[in-house]
Amino acid sequence: MDGSTFGELLRAARQRALHTLESLAEASGVSVRAISDMERGRSLPRQATLGELMDALELGEDQRRLLLQAAARRSHQVPQQLPPDLAAFRGREEVLKAVLASTDQVAADGGHVVVSAIGGMAGVGKTALAVHWAHQVADRFPHGQLYVNLRGFEHPGTPVDPGEALGGFLRALGVPSSDIPPGTDERSALFRERTASARLIVVLDNARNAEQIRPLLPASRGCLTIITSRNQLSGLAAAEGASLVSLDVWTEAEALAALAARIGAERCRREPEGAAELVALCGYLPLAVAVVGVQLGAEPLMPLRLAVRELREARPRLDALATEDQRVDVRVVFSRSYQALTPGTARFFRYLSVHPGPAVSAHAAASLAGVDLAQARRHLRELTSASLLSRDAHGRYVLHDLVRAYGTELVEQEDDDGLAAEARLLDYLRHNACTVNRLIGQDPYQLPDDPVPGVVHVAIDSREEGLAWYRQEEATATAALRSLESPELVRHRIDVTLEWVSWTMVAGRWSEEITATRRALDGSLALDDPVAIVRSCHNLARALVETGRPDDADEPLDLMLGQLHRLTPQQQARAERNMGWFRSRQGRHEDALRHTRRALVIARSLGHREEIGRVLTHESWCLALLGRHDEAMARSEETLPVLRELGDQRNEAAVWDTIGYVRQRMGDLHAAVAGYRKALDIFVELHDDYMQAEVLDNLASAELELGATEDARASWARAADLFGALRVARAAEMRAKAEALPQPQARPQLQPESEPEPEPEPPER
Question: Residue 370: CB partners within 8 Å, gap ≥ 6?
Fold first, then answer.
C-alpha cells in the first residue's frame, strides 16, 4: 500500500477520535508537521512512531492492523533502524556542538569518526544523545542508519553476540539469509565489504567492551559510528582512533530547564529554591529528573518543597545509581514514580519486570500480568509517559536494566506470584505457536488445551502474520527457555520447545534447536513422559541430520525406540514412520522399509486413513531407493487416489516426486521430469521450501541426463538457495553439483559481411 492510503486511514482515525493535528501531536509526542506529512501521503512512519500514534488514538485491534498493513515499507535496502528521537530532548548544547562539528568533518573529507558517549551511570542520557545526534545528521548519510542495542549491561541476560548483531545488519543491508556466513569473522568481513563505499550511520548502543564492538565497525571512511557504553573505551581510542565523549550528568541550568518543560516554567519560578534543590536531589541525572517531572506534572497542586522533603527523607539509596553527591537517591526517584501509578499499572509494572528478554510485545506483557490486551495497552501508555518504559525501533517495550532491577525488588517486596507470571508467559508462547503451526502447515505437538487463565490469544489469520509473530517473539522464547529455570516450570518449558520446532523448520534454526531440545529431553526424562521423550528425540535427531551429522542421530533414535512400547498405537505408527525417514537419511534403506511397514500394519489395524496415506507415501519412496521400481510404481499409483480423497496435498506431491524418481531409473526421462514438475508445483503452492529443494535436486539430475545442462544448473542452484535459507547442510552439496557442471562455451564474435540472419526462436518446453 502507498503512503496516501495510510494517510487517508490516519486522517479518518484522527477525525473519529475528535483530535486536531495539534491535540494528536500533544497526545502522541509526534510533531504536527510529521503527522501532516503522513496524512498527505508524503511520508510513512517508523514502527515505534506508529505505535505512539495508535496508542494516542486508542484504536481497536482491527483498526491497528489496517494502519500497520498500510504503513508497511516495501524496501529494506536503505535501512532506517534508528529509534524515535526524544520529543523532550533538552540540554547538551556544548556536547552537541562538538559532535556535530565532528560530523561536519566526516561530510567534508570522508573521515571515519567513532564516538563513545559514556557517563559512568545508567540514565545519564547516552542513548538519547546518540539517537538525537543521529537524527540531526541523518540526511547527510544517504545509505541509511543501522542500530543495535548490544545489551552490555542488562540484567538478566547476556550481551548480544557480535555475530548475531552482524546478522541483523547484513539482512538490513539486503543480504539474503542464505548468503550470510555462520562465523563472526566471516560476517564481519562481509559487513566491511558491503559498507566499503557506503555513507551510513551505525549506532552501537549499550556496548560491553571493545571486543564486542570491533567486529561491528564499518570499513567506509564515509560512515559515522556512534557507540554508547558505561565503560571507558580507551582501547578503541588507542587502536582505532576513536573520539571519546565523556557524557556527564546535566548542569543545574539544563536540569532546571528540563524540569520546567515537564511541570511548567511558572511553577518553577514560584518556588525557585525548591526546584533547584529538587534537581540537585536527582543528581542532575536526566532519567531521574524526567521521572520526577512526569510525577509532579500529574500532581499540579503539590508544592515542590513537599517533593523535596520526600526525596530527601526516603531511604535506602539505589547503589548502582549512586553519584559522588551522597544526597542523590535514584531508587527513591523510581519509587516516587511507581507510587504515583494507578494500582493496576503498579501491579502491571511489577509483573513486566519478570520478562526475561530485552524487549516485550504488548501481547506478551498482557500475558505476564494476566490482563486483557486493552488493559495492557493502557498500562503501557502510562508507564511510557512516566519514563519507566521506552520503545524500540520495532515498537516493542523496553525496560531499562536498572528499572527492571527495581521492579524485580518490588515483586519480592509485594510477594507477587512471579512463578505464575512466568508460567503465563510460557503458555502464551506455546498456545499461540500452536495456532500459527496450523496456518503454516505444521502438525502441532499436541492438541491445544485451553491456556492458563490470563494468557492472551493473538489474532492471526494468515501464514504471513503467523511467521511475523514467530519473528517477533523469537528472542522472548529463547530467553524464556534459557532463563526461567524453576522446577515447577519443566512441563511448560518442554511444551514450548516442542511446539516451537515448527519455527525451526521454517527458519532453519537447527543449531539453536539442538541446544533447546537437549534441555527439553532432560526435562522429559525427569518427568518420565514417553510422548515428550519420543518427540524430543525426534526433534534432536532431525536437527542433527540437517546439520550434516546423521550418524550422531543414532543415540536419540535408540532412546526413541526404547519408548515405543509405552505409546498408544496411533503414536507408535507415527514414530515408526518417522524412524523410516531417519533410516533412509542414514542410507539404511532396508531398515527404513521395515519401520515403515510396521507403521502401516498399525495404521491399518486402527483404520486411520490419514496415517495410512502418509505411510504408503513413504513406503513407495523406500521401495524406490531399494531399486524395486515396479513395486514402488504400483504402490504410488495405489496411494495417489487415497491422498486426493483425503485432500493431503503435501503427501500427494511427495508421491509425484517418487514417480519421477522411478521413471528416471526406468529410463523414461520425459515422464520423470513431468512427475518432478507436478511435485514442485504443489510444494510451491504449499510454501514448503524444504521439499521444493528435495524435488529440485531430483529434477536437476533428470535434466542433466536429457542434456539440458543449463536447466540442471539452475535447478541445483535454486535447491542450494532454498536449503541455504533453511541452514540445511545439504546446501553445500547442491551448490557443488551446480558448480561442477561445465560452463557454456562462448562462441567467437565474427564480423558479419552483411546483416545476420535472425536466430530462430527456441522451442517451448
Answer: 351, 420, 421, 424, 453, 454
Q: In sequence order, which residues have a C-beta less than 8 Å from that of residue 326 and are 6 or more positions away?
A: none
Give the span between the Cα atoms of 231 and 213, in whole angstroms.
Answer: 12
Count of CB atoms within 10 A of residue 368's CB? 27
Q: Alpha-carbon distance 615 to 597, whole Å?
A: 8
- Are 437 and 413 a contacting pair, CB within 8 Å? no
- Evaluate whether 327 touches 285 at the Cβ level (below 8 Å): no
pLDDT band, residue 107 (cuts 50/70/90): low
> What is the DSSP annotation of 463-508?
HHHHHHHHHHHHHHHHHHHHH---GGGHHHHHHHHHHTHHHHHHHT
Counting beta carbons within 10 angstroms of the beta carbon of residue 23, is it exposed (0 to 12), middle (13 to 18) or buried (19 or more)? Answer: middle
User: Can you spell out the DSSP letters for 176-223?
Assistant: -GGGS-SSHHHHHHHHHHHTTT---EEEEEEE--HHHHGGG--S-TT-
Residue 87's closest CA among 31, 145, 147?
31
252-291, pLDDT tens digit by residue? 888 998 899 888 889 999 999 999 998 887 767 787 788 7
Rounded Cα gap, residues 49 and 38, in angstroms: 11
Preceding omega of 744 cis (within 30 degrees of 0): no
Give tens-digit pLDDT for 564-574: 999 999 999 99
Return the CA Rg of the chain: 30
What is the biggest distance separating any 2 CA atoms in the chain, rounded to whole angstroms?
101
Strand partners, 145: 80, 201
The grid cell for 332 is 527513591
Compute CA 551 distance to the chain's CA centroid, rounded to the nearest angstrom: 32
Whole-prediction pTM value?
A: 0.69
| Lookup result for grid cell 524540569 | 259
Contact 458, 469 (CB under 8 A): yes
Ramachandran quadrant class, 476 (left: phi over 0; alpha: psi -120 to 50; beta: rest) = alpha
Among 22-26, 142-146, 161-165, 368-372, which stretch is predicted with the lowest mean pLDDT?
142-146
Closest CA to 744 of 712, 698, 720, 701: 712
What residue ranges in 380-494 does DSSP mark as E strands?
A: 390-391, 397-398
Q: Is the four-CA dihedral 623, 627, 633, 634 of positive or negative sign?
A: negative
CA separation for the pair 266, 320 (Å, rounded)? 34
Which of 739, 397, 262 lies closest to 275 in space, CA to CA? 262
Q: CA 305: distance to chain centroid? A: 47
- Reply yes or no: is the peptide bond before residue 316 cis, omega within 30 of 0: yes
Task: Identify which has the larger pLDDT, 84 or 76.
Answer: 84
Other C-beta atoms within 10 Å of 554: how many?
A: 13
Residue 622's φ and ψ, nearest 5 degrees, are -60, -40
| Look-up of cell digits 503435501 | 650
What is the b/e burial string over 234-267, where b = at least 16 CB atoms within 10 angstroms of the residue's CB? Answer: eebeeeeebebbebebbeeebbbbbbbbbbeeeb
Side chain identity, residue 228: T
Cell of 29: 509526542
CA distance 187 to 165: 10
**pLDDT tens-digit readout, 632-690:** 999 999 999 999 999 999 999 999 999 999 999 999 999 999 999 999 999 999 999 99
Q: Which pLDDT does position 754 carry in this prediction? A: 45
- pLDDT band of 122, cuts 50, 70, 90: low
Displacement of CA 762 from its chain's centroid (Å): 46
Residue tagged 493502557 (cell numbers): 378
Q: Are the C-beta atoms of residues 330 and 406 closer than 8 Å to each other?
A: no
- CA–CA gap between residue 349 and residue 409 (Å, rounded): 12
pLDDT of residue 404: 78
